[in-house]
Structures are given as C-alpha cells and as structure tokens.
Amino acid sequence: MTGKNIVQKILEEHDISEKPILEYNHGDPIFVKVDQCITQDATGTMAWLEFEAINIPEVTVPLVVSYIDHNMLQTDFRNADDHQFLQTIAAKKGAIMSRPGNGIIHQVHLENFAAPGKILLGTDSHTPTAGGVGSMAIGVGGLVVASAIAGELFELKLPKIIKVQLTGKLNRPWVTAMDVILELIKIKGVSGGLKTIFEYSGPGVKDLTAPERATITNMGAELGATTSIFPSDEHTKHFLKAQDRENDYSPLEADEDALYDEIIDINLSKIEPNVALPHSPGSVIKIRELVEKTPIDKILENMPEKVHNEIKEHVSRLYDRDLQIDQVCIGSCTNSSYLALASVASIVKGQVIASNISMTVSPGSKNVFTQIAQDGLLTDIISSGARLLESGCGPCIGMGQTPPTNGLTVRTFNRNFYGRTGEKSAGSFLLSPTSAALIALKGRFVDPLKEKEIKPEIFSEPEKFVTTKNMFIFPEKDQKKRSEIQIIKGPNIKDCPINEPLPKEIKGTVLLKTKDDITTGDIMMAGSKVLPLRSNIPAIADFVFNPVDDTFVKRAKEYNPNNKRRVFFIVGGNNYGQGSSREHAAIAPMWLGLGVVIAKSIARIHRDNLIQWGMLPLEFVDPKNYDKIDQSDDLLIMKLDSLKEGVSEIEIKNQTTDFSFKTQINLSANEIEMLRKGGALPLVKSKVSK
Ligand code: MIC
Ligand code: SF4
Questions:
Q1: Domain with 137 in it
Q2: Which ligand is closest to the CA of 124, given by its number?
Q3: Ligand with an atom nearest the CA of residue 125
Q4: Rounded CA gap, 640 and 648, in Å?
Q5: Each residue of 407-448: pLDDT tens digit?
C-alpha cells in the first residue's frame, strides 16, 4: 500500500464516489463536497446575483462568508448600493457578512474561519491563503461558488501534486516568507504551477508560523497553481489557539511513503531578499543584484524574452535615478498580518521616511489594526510619516495611491501587472515588508543584508490575538424572519446576462490576436474607474481589453451591432487569462459576442469561467499554428455536436487562408452539458427547478 499525501487525504474525505483516491489519474474529474465558500465585493456582487437567479431560498454550504474589501471608496452611490445589495442578500440567504473595514478577505478568513482539512472555494484567486493552516482552498469564478452554495458538488480535474521540500532556516529579520515564495516563482515561472498543487513539507516547515505559511500559499497563485497547502502541526495549533479557535485544530500531514509528481528542494538558509521586477511577479532577482547595478543584459539572461522590454525600461530608469523610488506600499492579503506589520514598525521606529517617498500601510484586518495599536506599534508607524489606509485591498487593486508618471513603486503585494497601479507608465516592484520598510527610510533600493544601523526586533507569534467579531453580521437564525428581508438593488445593479446554447457550427472573425501571458486584468481592468461597474455588465463591457487594444470595444460593437450575438474569436498565446479570478473577464467579452478562445494554453480559472459562461476555450494541438492565424481572419468550426467526455480534437478552418488546423479541449460530462445549455447558470437553474 502506498501512503497518501495531504491533498489526497483531503480529497478522499470529500469525494462522493467510492473510488479510492489513488486510482485517479491527472485530469480525471473528481466531485467533492464543499465545506466553506467565500466571496468578496468585486466578484461577489455578480456571484450573489447569480445565486439569486438560481433561485433557491438559502445557502446550503455549512459556512458562507461575504466580504467587502476591494471597493470601499464610495465615491458615488454605486459602491454604497453594491454594499447594500451584498448585505441584504447575505442576510436573506443565510450568509455571514464581513462589513467594510473588517479587513481583507483572505487575512480575515485565515484569522476567523479557515481550518485544517476543509475544502474552501472563493471567488478570488488568492483564496489559497487558507492553505497556510492546511485548508484546501481554491480560487474559482463566481458562478462556481454560486452553484456550490446552491448545493452543486465542486468538480476538480485532479492536478499534479508537487512537493516543496523545505530545509534550513530563514535569515531573519531581513529574509521573510515573501522571499521564499518569490524564490519558488523564480524557479518555476508564472505558468510553472498550471494544473498543479504545491504541497509543502520537510524540516523547514517548522521554521514558519501559520501567517508566514499563508504568505507563501497566497502568492502561490502567481505560479498559476490550483492551490498550495501546508501541513497542520504545532504552529497551526498555536495560531488557532491564539485566535480562540483551538477546537478547529486537527493534525494533518502526508504519510511517509506518499508519492508526488515532482519534488523541489528549497533551502531556507540560502535565500536572500528577493524582488519581482515590473511587470511580472515571475521576473524575480535578488535585491542585491539591483543594488550592485548588475548590467541589464546579465539580468535578462535568466528571463523569458517576452519580459525583456519592460525590464529594460524600468530597471534602466531605476539605475538612471541612482536606485531612487517614489512610493512604498505595505499591505495586501500577502503581507499584512500582525507579525509582518510588527517587523515594519520595529524598522521605522524613531526614524522618518525619506523625503522622496510616499509610504502607506494597510493592516490586513481590523483586529491586526487594533493589536498594533494596543501594542504601540502603530505609533511607531505613524510617527515615521507613513500614511495609514483602511484595512482593505486599496492600492493593490488600484483603488488609490496611483504612482506619478514614470513612477517607481515598491509594494509588498502579489501582483505588479502592467497598469494595475492605475498608471501605465509606472513600474511596480514586489518585495517583503522588511525590505520595503528599509527602502522607505533610505528612499532608494539598498541591500537589507548589508544594513548595519537598523536592527529590527524579531517578533515571535503572540500567545493571544485580538479576536473581536463585531464587524461580522451573522444571519438571523429564524428562517421565517429571514424570508421577510428585502434584497435592495440600486439602479446600477443589473441582472446577469445569459448565453445561448452552443451551436453545431461556429463561424466568425478573429477580432483580436494577443501575445503570451495575457492577464484577466488585461481583458477586464480593475481600478477606481471600473470597479463600481462590477454589477453592471453592459457598462463594464465598454472596458474589455482596454489596456491591450483600446479600439477593441469599438470594433466588437461594429462587428455585432445591437448586441445580436454574432460570435467572434480571440486568439491567444501561452497562459492566456492568468491572474485574477474575475469572471467579468469572461462575461463582459461574452456580452460583446465572444464565442471561442483559441490559445497555446489557457489558465485554469479563466478556462473554467469561459465554460461556465458557455464559451469554448480551445488549445492548439500544435502551438506553431498560432503563427498561421492573423487578426481579422475568418474561422469556421463544425461538428460541435460531437464533443465527447475527455479530450476532443476540434478542427478549425481558417477560411481566409484556406488552411485547417487542430485544437483540443478536455471536457467532463458536466461541462459538455453546461455548454449545451449555454453555461452553468441555465444548467443549475434547470436542475434546481426539477
Ligand atoms: C486580484 O487580486 O486581482 C483580485 C482583485 O483580488 C481578483 C479578484 C477580482 O478581480 O475582483 C482575484 O485575485 O481574483
Ligand atoms: Fe485584495 Fe490585492 Fe489580495 Fe486581490 S491580491 S484580494 S486585490 S489584497
């Protein structure tokens, strides 16, 4: 008998079939029961509109929490209306509401609800944060969560499982968990985790507290991974106990003879402070290399060609300015725990940030905020000149703190995609909170390991965290009273659109051909202009592909006047749709008429979102055929009624060049049914009404 790894243990526990988990192969669909679901406002308004459209009286999953953290600016009625909608629908349908100001979804969930062995689905790609305490936590599109809370099982295509074997100890305080995940992304690249779960193991695990582990599983999303998970051990127990949740603890570890698809060794003692260069979390080098002004050609030697231009531009700007930067932002769901901010406080204590720097700090939760206030750490932060922001996503999602023209910003976040800061000419560098705090004081990049004067304290995890729950609204227990609650929907909140069933034949034009690594942010940007439109698809559709091609919407509307659903194609390179889980990147293009994406490879969440909304995500059998299609070519697909369970090959004819090529898609029976019905919404609705 072969033993099981952690992932296999959790899946087996939740799998509804009788089949032993070790008999599943990669890619096999496995249907599991879900323990917890979470949404956040930016994706949640849609998810809850979908749940409302499915039309069942209340949530069926044991724990459902609706968080508000992404857009809290309330610059006009639209945002406040969204909040009112979320609050009233949660109250009516039996979900817990986390009010604005309570903190960032992943940090708050980690503190209050995440538990070892649970399966958690969230409408946000950083849901794997909960893997820091041994949850199997997966980011998905809104409709997947809406369906799950309506009682549908979750379908997972069994990913590869990679063991990350940690040895050694971090060189604290300057080397942190952030440097560990940047190291792994350096090794694997931004698509190195596609269809993969990373399971952490080895003696080095003991060197990491639960929130530090959560930093690592959080940013595992930037590998394209399905999720990442740590064992549950004494550190997990300590964390849960300090959160007043000792009862949620259970031990969880892999069997000694468990098998993995691959093993990666990382020696924590050897890691130095790292930094991801603009505009990719995968463009990682050591901070020291920047400080030593390593020739740019040398830096580029280890980077894929597609990122060369952006690195050249921003690193040469940095060198020209003698390493000076403009802004430092500390926070986000990656690095905003009590320990992260305590270390920042101890670095800036008694000092003032450099005059060229604008620095902000956003504590991850109201309880972290309260605790750093109680311990006097907040005073150290404020006195240094750092500006305090709300406990929320803030600058990470482009809600404020946009850098100046050609600005260079240093952030402790997980994403630095083109345009995400709100300023397309700016460059954003990702690094750890301790490196960021030191850089804020110096006004420029310095090598933390060479720092002689500032000697930050090394904090250990408190025995007791602040654990107030007064910013949650727990649903009324009496179902009758709940049923009387009115859902309030302001005028900007529009019903979700529904697609048509997949036809037998699709004929259309390639309206856009993109390069590799298109993010869902390229397809559907975020930021303060667009986030208020997340519950209004016709309005948000006006921004589709804006960062990539600002003529796209006009062309789509000309192609498809009066929104008559004359479908078009998009052709993409590798890792199309990476990044955020926002299903608006599927729904809004669908609303304009998208029918089929053909790409070299498609990122998991986006691929699933396309199917959920009734579109076809196809991959080239021979990626070289990408070169044989041009924007504006007319394509034809026939025999779509012959889709079968497993891998189907689909032939496409390029009618412009009279050339045919093969594409493929791996579908489960459930997905085929979805496509036939026009997406998950009509499918689940029809099941529920039966
Ligand atoms: C992100 O970090 O990109 C977001 C904003 O949290 C998204 C969700 C969204 O687009 O609302 C994510 O990670 O899924
Ligand atoms: Fe919020 Fe940023 Fe985390 Fe996304 S990555 S959930 S925007 S803090």
A1: 6-270
A2: 1
A3: 1
A4: 10
A5: 999 999 999 999 999 999 999 999 999 999 999 999 999 999
